[in-house]
Amino acid sequence: MSSLEYAVEFRAVSRTFRTGPEPVAALCEVSATFRRGTFTAVMGPSGSGKSTFLRCAAGLEQVDSGQVVVGGVELAKLGDKALTVLRREKIGFVFQSFNLLPSLTAAQNVALPLRLAGRRVGESEVREALAAVGLSGREGHRPSQLSGGQQQRVAIARALITRPAVLLADEPTGALDSKNGREVLRLLRAMADDTSRAVVMVTHDPAAAGYADQVVFLTDGRIVSVLEQPTVDQIAARMTSLETPTC
Amino acid sequence: MLSIALSTVRVRWVSFVGTLVALTCGVALMATAILVIHATGTVPDEQRQRYSGVPVVVLPATAMEFAGAGGHDESFHLGHPHTLPADLVAAAAATGRVVADHTFYAQLAGGPADQVGRGWSAAEPGGYRLLAGRAPAGPGEVVVGGGDPALVGRSVPLTTAAGPRTVTVTGVTDSAPFEHAVFFSDAEAAALSPDVDALGVYAPEAAVRQALTPWSSGLSAVTILSGPDRSAADPHHVAVAGQLQKVEDPLGLAAGVAGFVAIFVVAGTFALSIAQRRRELALLRMVGATRRQMRRLVRFEALLVGLFASVIGCAVSVATGPLCGRWLVDHDLVPAGFTVSVIWWGLLVAALTGMTTALVGVLVSAVRAGVVSPADALREAASERRQVPVLIFRWLVGGAVLIGGLIAEGTTAFIRPESGADAAAALALVLINVGAFAVLGGVLAKPVTGLLTAVPSAVHALLVRRRAAADGSRPGTDGATWEIARQTAATAFGRTAATTTPVVIIIALAGSLLGTVATINAGQVTATREELAGSDYVVSPAGTPGLSQAVVQRIRSVPDTTALVVTPIVVYTEQSEGHGENMMTGVHTSAVDAAALPVVTRLPVASGSLAGLGPDSIVVGSSWPGSPKAGRTVSVWLPDGTARTLMVAAVLKHSGSSAAQAYVDSSLAGSAMASRVQVKVAPGADLGKVLAGLRSAVAGAGAQVRVPDQVATQAMDANEKASWTGMEMILGLSVLYAAIALANTLVMTVSDRKRELVLLRLVGATKGQVLRVVAVETLMCLAAGAVVGALAVAISIGGAWAALSRLVGATPAVVPWAALGGLFGACVLIGLVAAVVPVGVVLRGTQERGLMEAAVGEAG
């Protein structure tokens, strides 16, 4: 079954927003597959549909047509409860900022998805997860006592504790300095090398995208090109060509 | 979920302080009320009572039969009991020694108004001991209970229902805690008051019951009491129980109001806290919390806060309960021996109510937390979206409650106006109204602020333009401050709603309650004024329970006057409750000189004629059950239980509120004492001479002469006034904790504002301008709350006014402007301090620089 091979599949997915005076096609017949064990960067100019793409992959956005399949399950068929459980079990998230619940400690934040699933969480399990992202001994710290990079690493530890099929990252280095950003990217790279999982990252930073196995370029809701094993220079050049006004 | 809730409460304690304080106050008030109400259930134990010295007491029947629903005979207790028949007394006497107790009005000059006359044999069951002199033997001899031994042998003036006379004191006894008695010889007591009010029997209870079998069945059965039950025969004991009962109503209402305010305060602060934590909650959803888990989280938080509040509130009530008891004693609202003890189940009930209140308060917030979209975690924008479902919910619920309230007000005003004159019944309507507007406050805040700002904006724009034209400068920057404040108030929906709601509650609750009560009081004054219209002078008792016959006679004999002697009685009539069910209702009735009624009064008549009143007829008010027409007959029961069929001589246009609702001839008055004499001076007579005549007629007889206006303005029941003093105090406490909630809300919103205010500073606003923006925005929210609250006040007072107008005719609607102004002023003060000071602190020096960096950092 392909579902075992692909963590996420987009099959001719379209999404149009009709809130403004003119309907805006955020995604237009997008088809793409994300194999387990790969790291994909999604790039594109502002308004290209990157964020919509990510939200559709997470089931946060209903699609108008087409199918989104995560871990072999088609999202459109799921109700809110089933979708929540799917997110809890198969999808991990990392955002640009505000990843953690400020009232919980690092350990509590990491254990959260399992606790929400009603599971008893062993202390060692959480400690190992934090150690895996280089945060041993920080279990009792609250987010306000951690640096931005450390917070981001806690978020990655939390995203991985459920062993999800896909890790979705939205500009994970956007709020970090380059040193911390590099560390986070190395972690994401390492996560993707685990063959059970796909990592999909939305970014506008060619340097960040350079860590990926493939880069998907979106413009006006369409995939305009895909680079396999790209270099940073290739990515930057492609981005520049996409951002050049065509009018 | 519980541990997440625990962590949240611990870390975000500022968000929960308002809820905690409100709930703590609510629980403390409720617990105090429960403890005091429980204490009022037991009359302070007094070893010595009126009949504690006699084993068995027999009381006359107070029940009366009437045909109730479906032809079943039902009983009804009369205010005035029958006498014990002579054959019963004889039958009881066969079992042992008996004491026939005659109790009647007898007041020594300077004695208390509740002084009573009794036969000397009744002193023994009461445990009186003769301290000096001897027992009364002949006519005109008395023994004074608790009297000064120096009185023995003296002649003293004494007033009975018949009038003043002189008696000789032959002895004095010790004083009794339950009455002020003057003992006559048994023969004279029986002559002065032939009715046997109670019979003490020195015999075993079984023997007495056996002997009185013929009088022990049916509805008119006599009551046979022994042991502790004998206290029911002691009027003092009954009066104390009644007095305690009277304290319960305002306390119960207070507990209700406290819980009511607490629910809204909890709902408001939690709603704001949910709005503030939207991204946090979205994050929880994102990492896999289901909607149910979100709802549970919020409920857990509420329960935790509720638990803390309950524990603290109950602990506080352990101190405030006894304090409240002492306050009641100090204000003579309860007898001296009254104590409040702490009972664990009372505290438990209060604590459970507190937790329930917290849960009810977060009903909506829990749902809101459940519908937070996980996608919100990805949104960076902090600007708030108007949550359409919440708005619809507020409109629907608030609208439905308001419509229900308006229907209830209308029903009261047009179908049952008499309940509109009852403060306790009116309070329920008030609470419905206030609740509706508290819910609607959030949605009305935006249009109201829009309206409030539209006018001053236009004026301001005009002024600025004119000034600019005058000195050739460009329009100033003040307009910007105003504009920003206005926009923020309109777009920060949650914040505006949270700030306005406590103000709505404060203004609406205080204004409605005080206004309704004042309007009802004004209605009583109007009713009394109408009753007294046409009279030139009114003679009423002063320091005595009523006017003696001698005083009445002396007033009647003042030349050039017509006197209308008014004796208040209660007549009973059946009132249809619908579904073919009837119940007995007592109607306050004035027994008057029929012939003098049309001369002395100017009662407005709807149909019939006052002149038609005679011994077999009645004048009824507009709210008499069944609304009979003039010329029809009505069935009534007189105070002594006699059934009479009376013809309706006239129907009045109005119906008194607490005053008389019907008039009958004085021949039906029985033995009750007159409560006032209305005097009409003959045309052309010398008013001064008449007044002098009246003054000399009442001199030294415990009566006073006043003009009708003086009487009317003092129409408010003194006892009621005392109860409402307590009510106002509780209202004050409720208002206080709504104010605390207001302050807390504003402090909570500072964290929301930080970024936008720093942004304002970054784009070039001075510190002063930023503070002004905050102040103006807060003022707008407060003003909007006051306007919405005023709507509720208008409806509440309007409802009471409509009901009273139907009842007593044209009467003023009283708006408590001073109280409303004061409370709004307090809200403004609290609001400005709570909003501006924390912002000032945030904007200060180093903190500000840090914030700017933070703002820049987040933007980059």
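qc> The radius of gyration of chain B is 34 Å.
qc> done
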